[in-house]
């Protein structure tokens, strides 16, 4: 009779004297240690280090990836006491592809009743949507981009050469170029058959590539600096967030009023320096301290009807019917401010003798932007200032 040999606690026969003394837990640890030793012995012979490969890294950006500089083409054409401006700005290569057609278009332009005829346009051109203070926008579809030609006008000033020089230098500033003291700021003559005196051709290239942030631009005329950001409504919100939305007669600590040097004017008697912000070119406080009104001068954008409707909403405290806005637009006073055809609005509540009223003048600048000259305050104070506002507007000289 055979006698069974020793077994493990699990009932399995023991194979060696060493194994006879191992518990299941000890056995697992031994096997794991043995496997680890085997792996340590194998791995060093299997792993191969990758060879070091040198690379040449370029230190300059390829030309194809560089942002293009902006280029501006413009023509100034005098006709029937108006200076007509035709202007396009865009990437240098795109503008170059348009340059010849654009120049020929301006040279052949015809006028009817004092306005340029835009019914027959070159292939690929079409009349664009309306923009405030602009006669027309022409959309031009090119290979990689759509460019917009702006058509606008200003009153013809007595010194034609100086008017040209002022506008060309303003455009030069937009592109980062220094002002020029040459005749016409280095622009050249352009032969336009229908013009009544020498026309001008402008061709400018920016000093640096344009930055593309991927965001819609809120900037107006770059020569105006930070003061040209947004619309009057946006600016009012910005001033409010900055803690600057208090009426005139502001507490100590507000920045002193230093009007922008590009404005020249005769200050009416009794007008005092007002509260300046980075948005304002000038600001004045008028009337008694206990019922003062404030006049501000701000360059900004925004459509005409939208601004008038918003101002009416401020003095009437609520949504204003369309017919009230229509009447305000129809009643606007047409005036001349430094050779520019401006509009002046007197906007009141239902009772024009009480509450707050607004006396606002909108002066067209360029590229859809305007100069907003707005007096806002108690009805009696603003009404009493009507003649002084008119005198101030008449004296204004703008170098914007």
By CATH reckoning, the class of the largest domain would read Mainly Beta
H and E string: HHEEHEEEEEHEEHEEEEHHEEEEHHE
Rg (C-alpha, Å): 37 Å
Q: Examine the coordinates and then state which fold CATH places here, giving the name of the CATH topology of the largest domain.
A: Jelly Rolls
Low-confidence residue ranges: 16-21, 211-257
- Name the structural class: alpha+beta
Helical segment tally? 9
Strand numbers in spatial order across the main sheet: 5-6-7-2-1-9-8
The chain-level mean pLDDT equals 77
Largest sheet: 7 strands, antiparallel
Task: Give the proportion of residues in helices.
Answer: 25-40%
Provide a descriptive summary of the structure in words.
The protein contains nine helices and 18 strands. The chain is of the alpha+beta class and 400 residues long. The chain has two domains: 66-208, no CATH class; 224-398, Jelly Rolls. The strands form four sheets. It has a seven-stranded antiparallel sheet, with helices on both faces. A seven-stranded antiparallel sheet has the order 11-12-13-17-16-15-14. A two-stranded antiparallel sheet has the order 3-4. A hairpin with a 2-residue loop joins strand 14 (333-337) and strand 15 (340-347). Helix 6 packs across helix 7. The radius of gyration is 37 Å and the shape is extended. The termini are far apart. The relative contact order is 0.10. The model is unreliable at 16-21 and 211-257 (pLDDT under 50).
